[in-house]
C-alpha cells in the first residue's frame, strides 16, 4: 500500500503537471530570462514578485497625502485613531479595500503612497467611504 500511495502522490504532484509546467516555464523564461533572476536571493525575489506581508503601520500614516484635508482635521485624526486600534487582519483588509491587495509591492511602505480625499458630498452623514484602487485614493466623507 505504501508503494501505491507513493506512486499516486508522485503522479498527482509531479508527473500529471509536468508537461503544463514545462510549457509555462518555457513561456515565462522567454519573457523573463533566467539570467535576470540570478541576481536575487530567493527571499528578495519572493518579495519582488509577491510583495511585503508585514508592515510598519505608522510609516503608512506618515506617507499619506491629503486632498482637501490636513493631518490635523478631526476626521483624519479620528480615522487614524480607529485605524491603529484595528487588528492586523483588519488593517490588511483595509489595504485590500484601498489597493485591491493585502500586500505592498517590492518597494515596501517607504514608497507606498495613498491619498485621503474629501469627496465633498452634500450630506456626509449619508455617504460611505469608498476607494479608487487604481489611484490609491480613499474618499472619506467628513
From TrEMBL:
Catalytic residues, chain numbering: 134
Lineage: Eukaryota, Metazoa, Chordata, Craniata, Vertebrata
Single GO biological process annotation from the record: protein polyubiquitination
Source organism of this protein record: Horornis vulcanius
Gene3D superfamilies: Hect, E3 ligase catalytic domain, Hect, E3 ligase catalytic domains
Keyword Ion transport set for record: no
Gene encoding the protein: Herc4_1
E.C. number(s) listed in UniProt: 2.3.2.26
Keywords: Ligase, Transferase, Ubl conjugation pathway
PANTHER family xrefs: HECT-TYPE E3 UBIQUITIN TRANSFERASE (PTHR45700:SF8), UBIQUITIN-PROTEIN LIGASE E3C (PTHR45700)
GO MF: ligase activity; ubiquitin protein ligase activity
Keyword Flavoprotein: no
InterPro entries: E3A/B/C-like, HECT_dom, Hect_E3_ubiquitin_ligase
Span of domain HECT: 1-142
Catalytic activity: S-ubiquitinyl-[E2 ubiquitin-conjugating enzyme]-L-cysteine + [acceptor protein]-L-lysine = [E2 ubiquitin-conjugating enzyme]-L-cysteine + N(6)-ubiquitinyl-[acceptor protein]-L-lysine
Pfam family, one: HECT
Entry protein name: HECT-type E3 ubiquitin transferase
